[in-house]
Amino acid sequence: MRSDLRLLPAAIATWAAAWALTRWTGAAPAVLCGSAGGVLASAVALLAARATARRTARVAAQALLVAGAVAAVTLGAVAHVAAREPVAVLAAQCADAVLAGRVVADGTPSPFGAGQVWSLDADTVTARAVTTAVRARVEVSGAEAAPPYGARAVVHARLAPADPAVEDAARATATDVEVVRRPPAVLRATNALRAALLGVTADLSPQAQGLVPGIAVGDTSRMPPDLGAAFKATGLTHLTAVSGGHFAIVLTLVTAFAGMVRAPRWVRVLLVAAIATGFVLLVRPEPSVQRAAVMCAVTVLGVALGRPAASMPSLAACTMVLLCADPWLARSFGFALSCAATGGLVLLVTPLVRRLTPWLGRAGALALAVPLAAQLACGPVLVLLSPAVPTVSVLANLLAAPAVAPATLLGLAATLTAPWWPWGAHALAWTAGGATWWVAAVARWCSALPGAALPWPGGPWGALAMAGATALLLVLVLRRAPGEGWPLAWSEGGRQARRAAGAYVRAALVRRRHGLLTRRDRRLALVAAVAVILLVTGTTTAVVRVLPTRGRVPADWQVVACDVGQGDSMAVRTGPASAVVIDTGPEGDAAGRCLDRLGVTRIDLLVLTHEHLDHIGGLAAVLAGRDVRAAWVSKLDQPAANARRVSDELAGAGVTRRVPDVGETVHLASGGWQVDLRVLGTGIASGGKRASVSRGSAEGDGINDSSIALDVVTSGPGGGMDLVALGDLEQPGQDALLTSLQAGGPPGVLDGVDVVKVAHHGSASQSARLARLLHPRVALVSVGAGNTYGHPTASMLDLYAGVGSRTVRTDRCGSAVLVVRGGAMALACT
After folding, report:
1. What is the C-alpha separation between 286 and 279, in angstroms, rounded?
2. Exposure check for the chain: N or C terminus, fewer CB within 10 A?
3. Is the pLDDT of residue 536 over 70?
4. Which residues of 344-360 are buried (b: 16+ CB within 10 A; e: fewer)?
């Protein structure tokens, strides 16, 4: 039996339209998308006109379904954009506003200090004495604690722009939060259940504290960071992202109970619907939960009508419905992974089982086919998240599978009993912890295996390459499989329509050669030409907008020396969208554009090593639209005009500036990324003329030797590196720094480092003794192409080559991106 794929083209078209409309929000893209859908649908219908009436009706219905789906999602996207526009405009102006709405996400610890981060569905916004009705989601941070889920709150906050690729219309830093209405009774009950579960698991082992609530209700707030990284590396994160598997376990149990008591069909339908609704409220309607819930609703409706729904049409229908209701789901990786995994299970499990059964037996084939099908389907999406292929994912899921159902059921039992029987709930949670211990052990063991993740190109091209490789593998493995369960081609009507269209085109070409083209032929040719133009234009626009002019920035970047011309600007990653930024380059927006490409929306610490224009000129562009927590500046306020400019721009952005102390340390961490920063020196100059000026230097005012020097130890999911940034220190300043380090510097620096940001753009004024002490693997030189200073100089290149360093220059590499994968450092030029 072939899978019914009739709704799949409409679902794909809906997703593509939603993705495009949420990237390029505005009337023109919406009109273009709707028009293109209509034109293409009309072309398909007309090209099939030579077929029989039945075939024509089938193809025309498919075309109309696609056009209708595109039109529906277009209307939905336009409505969403219009409803959130007032908040987005205020956010672009960093305005103060009062938001009122419903809390729609539980608070999570802020990665930037005290307080929590949560989401608000705002329905009104008041700014500048004007109140406007809106419908916009806002990410709120800064409050001491988040209000209860489902409560109505009024938030006084400073708005800031949000990432355009997410549903949030703005980010808000709250100064005051007032709860004006409690959550509804059912949400108060689910809040109490979740809180009680956290209470009874508080004294369990660290893995159980994180995994028992995570697997039971999707609460990962206490997941140990190292375990979270192991889950990501092994493809086990779906266990803590409640989705179809959890629904299947719960509803199978409910259905079995209803069958045991011989409940009539209508009772079973109502019971399943009630349990499913309560489960959604308990685990929160995240994108993967929404997908599972809507598919469950379609299935329940089919049972109620006595017509069980097929899985693939149900998936396609629920995808279209959800995307029309919320077009920003098209950009949710959680939603994409949930749909891809479900589609893979529906389409691939049966043929894979058939091919594997002769070798493994039916039970073994089924056990292996399920994780293999999900991994194959999710592969193209996963490489967009991380440019690597998890080679141990199938093994990890296979080994963890026996413990998943016990952990889920025992965790849910502990959740339901915790408010009224804490002792019994604690015993259930402790038992569930035994099951999660096995899952954690599998994740840690598999993630530590050699070759657990293999490098793969990131970005859209990497995803396309993965999709092509997956398709090739499936063809090789399944090409001899019987037709049952595997859609070897589209429906019979679709094949006949394509044959009819091809025959019509061939006949039209013959008529053209003989000068016998009809008016109908010319109309069809015009429609086809318009469709091709729209397709080519849309594809070209997407490629130009999505792909950068150079290589795409790796998703797991850790340190980036931005290509800002003849100047310095460096970003060191501290979280998914945050960084330490060292200098801002010369005048212009090059540094700001670099941070935009990196997705940096928050700067935990801005370090201006000294106040020459090639290090502070791009400050305004770096500050614009970003939340800057603090700034360090040089102890020498020279040149005076530049110092005043820095002071004014930082004050205008509300950023506190100060001079750091030698030996001062800062620890920053978020989302698996971590930075430990130490001040190695603050320069030797205190004004006046330097003692000496080496050849290759253009400044004799001592300002370069007032540069802040830093030791930066950074780590991420793939490992870490040690970097020393020398600002523009020249030989006297470097020698003074060397003396200080030898007298009591950090042991890691004294043993050599991975990376040195070479001082003063690679001028000739370098300390050979300091270079020998640091002997970095990589020497980063931030320098402009064709500069008139002769940077980098031959003597500097020879010096660092002599200590075994590889020199990387931004004038040749562009923005130099350093990543660590599997403990090995790699370079990408972007």
Report:
1. 12
2. N
3. no
4. bbbbbbbbbbbbbeeee
Written as six digits, the tokens of 624 are 């614009």
CA nearest neighbour of 699 among 777, 789, 811, 631: 789
Measured from the Cβ of residue 141, the count of other Cβ atoms closer than 10 Å reads 22
Q: What is the DSSP letter of 822?
A: T
Residue 115's nearest CA partner among 143, 140, 79 is 143
| Dist. CA 3–CA 5, nearest whole Å | 6
For residue 395, give the DSSP letter.
Answer: H
C-alpha to C-alpha distances, 762 to 114, 786, 797, nearest whole angstrom? 41, 14, 8
631-633 and 602-608 strand pairing: parallel
Q: How many CA atoms lie within 13 A of 404 on its CB side?
A: 21
> CA separation (Å) from 736 to 339, 401, 767, 769?
60, 60, 10, 11
Answer yes or no: is pLDDT of 691 > 60: no
Give the burial class of 667: count Cβ atoms within 10 A of its Cβ; 0-12 exposed, 13-18 middle, 19 or more buried. exposed
State the pLDDT at residue 482. 42
CB atoms within 10 A of CB 658: 9
pLDDT of residue 543: 35
Q: Which secondary-structure segment (H or E) carries 794?
A: helix 794-802
**Residue 143 pLDDT:** 59
Cβ pair 138, 119 in contact under 8 A: yes
Distances 545 to 31, 167, 542, 548 between C-alpha atoms, Å: 19, 20, 5, 8
Type of residue at 780: L
Please give the pLDDT value at position 213: 94
For the residues 792-814, what does the mean pLDDT come to?
91
The count of other CB atoms within 10 Å of the CB of residue 580 is 25
Q: Which of the 8 DSSP states describes residue 634?
A: -
Give the whole-angstrom CA distance, residue 75 versus residue 453. 42
User: Is the pLDDT at 201 greater than 60, yes or no?
Assistant: yes
Name the nearest CA neighbour of 264 among 306, 314, 308.
Answer: 306
Q: At 772, which amino acid appears?
A: R
| Tokens 């500046």, residue located | 633
For 733, list phi and psi in degrees, rounded to 5.
-65, -40
Q: Collapse the DSSP code of 752 into the 3-class scheme (helix H, G, I; strand E, B; otherwise coil) and give the result.
A: coil
End-to-end CA, the chain: 49
Give 359 or 154, the one with higher predicted confidence: 154
Question: Among 563, 606, 616, 599, which residue's Cα sits nearest to residue 582?
Answer: 606
Query: Is residue 330 within 8 Å of residue 19, measured between CB atoms?
Result: yes
Query: Is there a contact between 139 and 119 (Cβ–Cβ < 8 Å)?
Result: yes
- Asked whether 9 and 18 are in contact (CB, 8 A), the reply is no
Highest mean pLDDT among 120-134, 497-511, 687-701: 120-134
Do residues 436 and 208 lie in contact, with contact meaning Cβ atoms separated by under 8 Å?
Answer: yes
In 3-state terms, the chain is what percent helix, strand and coil (to 5)? 55, 15, 30
3-state SS record for 405-459: HHHHHHHHHHHHHCCCCHHHHHHHHHHHHHHHHHHHHHHHHHHCCCCCEEECCCH
Higher-confidence position of 780 and 447: 780
d(CA 586, CA 569): 9
Q: What is the DSSP string of 646-675?
A: HHHHHHHTT--EEPPPTT-EEEEEETTEEE
Q: pLDDT-derived band of residue 363, with 50, 70 and 90 as boundaries? A: confident
Give the pLDDT of residue 530. Answer: 45
- 159: helix, coil or strand? strand
Q: Cβ neighbours of residue 188 under 8 Å, at least 6 residues apart?
A: 148, 150, 182
User: What proportion of the chain, given as a percentage, has pLDDT over 90?
Assistant: 35
Question: Which residue is it, tokens 């949930």?
Answer: 338
CA distance 734 to 680: 11
Structure pTM?
Answer: 0.58
